[in-house]
Amino acid sequence: MTDLDALQPLSPLWAGRLHLMLELMATLAFALSGVLEAARKRLDMVGVVVVAFAAAFGGGTLRDLLLDHRPFFWVQDTFFLWLVIVVCAAAMLFMRQHHLQPTERAIVWPDAIGLGLFTVIGEERALALGQPALVAVMMGVITSVFGGVLRDVLCNEVPRALADHRPYALWAFAGGWLYWALRLALPVWLCISVGVTAIAGLRLLSVWRDWRLPAWRQ
């Protein structure tokens, strides 16, 4: 029996609905993180939209490319595109009316939530396509990390995933294995709840407690 055979089954109907709901929530979270980062860097309206799109769709697009899955998720369902546009417009209007200046700390929350959601989404997509455990976990990491990398690069920042020193991609990788292990025995909805909560919670805890990975000395 392979590792795929041992996974708890999920009906195609519920799999589709659940995946769509999770992808919408993750897209919303990362789009918001893109808007906040672009606003913090004082980009214009076009810049805000570009950064939000890159953050929301970058990881999932790279995942679909590597898995040779067509069409891309945001091409297959254009509601994702409209969602990001609405998020950009609403967030910019709200911040302008209330004279809010986003801080780096404000970005941590949507970024952590998106990290947890996209890790599970990417891994589940790979498992559904018959990929082995290691590939599935790596697809989860790529899905959850690459959008943030693009966001930071476009905002002229060294990506947090590479230079923050507080665990980021590490929690996506560890949480991906936790999710896969739970999928062997528990209902999918429970695995998703535990996996997303663990990844997002550990990222937030790392920032709060200032846990740092070893880095090269000067």
TrEMBL record:
<feature type="transmembrane region" description="Helical">
    <location>
        <begin position="72"/>
        <end position="94"/>
    </location>
</feature>
<comment type="similarity">
    <text>Belongs to the UPF0126 family.</text>
</comment>
<dbReference type="Pfam" id="PF03458">
    <property type="entry name" value="Gly_transporter"/>
</dbReference>
<protein>
    <submittedName>
        <fullName>Trimeric intracellular cation channel family protein</fullName>
    </submittedName>
</protein>
<feature type="transmembrane region" description="Helical">
    <location>
        <begin position="46"/>
        <end position="66"/>
    </location>
</feature>
<keyword id="KW-1003">Cell membrane</keyword>
<keyword id="KW-0472">Membrane</keyword>
<feature type="domain" description="Glycine transporter">
    <location>
        <begin position="21"/>
        <end position="95"/>
    </location>
</feature>
<keyword id="KW-1133">Transmembrane helix</keyword>
<keyword id="KW-0812">Transmembrane</keyword>
<dbReference type="GO" id="GO:0005886">
    <property type="term" value="C:plasma membrane"/>
</dbReference>
<dbReference type="InterPro" id="IPR005115">
    <property type="entry name" value="Gly_transporter"/>
</dbReference>
<feature type="transmembrane region" description="Helical">
    <location>
        <begin position="128"/>
        <end position="150"/>
    </location>
</feature>
<feature type="transmembrane region" description="Helical">
    <location>
        <begin position="20"/>
        <end position="39"/>
    </location>
</feature>
<feature type="domain" description="Glycine transporter">
    <location>
        <begin position="109"/>
        <end position="182"/>
    </location>
</feature>
<feature type="transmembrane region" description="Helical">
    <location>
        <begin position="186"/>
        <end position="208"/>
    </location>
</feature>
